[in-house]
Amino acid sequence: MRELGFLSFVPNHGGTAGAAAALEDGLRLFETAESLGYGTGWVRGRHFEPFLTSPMTFFAAAAQRTSSIGFGTAVLGMRYEDPIRLAEDTSTVDLLSDGRVQLGISTGIAGYGPILDPVFGASDRSFRDEAEA
Predict the structure, then answer these.
(1) Which of 34, 43, 91, 116 is the Cys-Cys partner for 69 at CB 3.0 to 4.6 Å?
(2) Helix, strand, coil tally for the chain in percent (to 5)
(3) What is the C-alpha separation between 34 and 38, in angstroms, rounded?
(4) What CATH number is given to the structural domain containing 72?
(5) Which residue in 37, 28, 30, 41 sits closest to 102, CA to CA?
């Protein structure tokens, strides 16, 4: 039998409690899912939007509050990440969680180039070029 998983953006709906409450809600979601027998919880990292921006930091906290549920990224756009920092952070969280991290990566978020280019720089290659490579 395959294990059951879920995906959450860990949304920040604003309000007086703000981002801290959204993160706490996300952590409680992982605790509850583990108690219900879920095998893996997946999150997406979204920059400059009202969602989780730092999955590995979040997973480090979740690892301290859970004991068996896996943690996965679905997916992180590598164009917007420092590969060495992500590898170090992922390895650290994987050690803290006793091997529960599953890293999903992509080249970037299609359609976000013009919005994020001023922050991360313009890409030398288009998504079509990468698909043909």
Answers:
(1) 34
(2) 45, 15, 40
(3) 5
(4) 3.20.20.30
(5) 41
Q: Do 105 and 78 form a contact (C-beta atoms < 8 A)?
A: yes
Report pLDDT digits (tens) over 71-86. Answer: 999 989 888 789 999 9
Please give the helix or strand (H or E) that residue 54 lies within, else none: none
pTM to 2 decimal places? 0.81
pLDDT band at 117 (very low <50, low <70, confident <90, very high): low
Cα dihedral across residues 38, 98, 94, 25: positive or negative? positive
**Cα(27)–Cα(82) distance, integer angstroms:** 25
13-46: string of b/e by CB count within 10 Å (b at 16+)? eeeeeeeeebbeebbebbeebbeeebbbbbbbbb
> Structural domain of residue 76, as residue ranges?
5-132
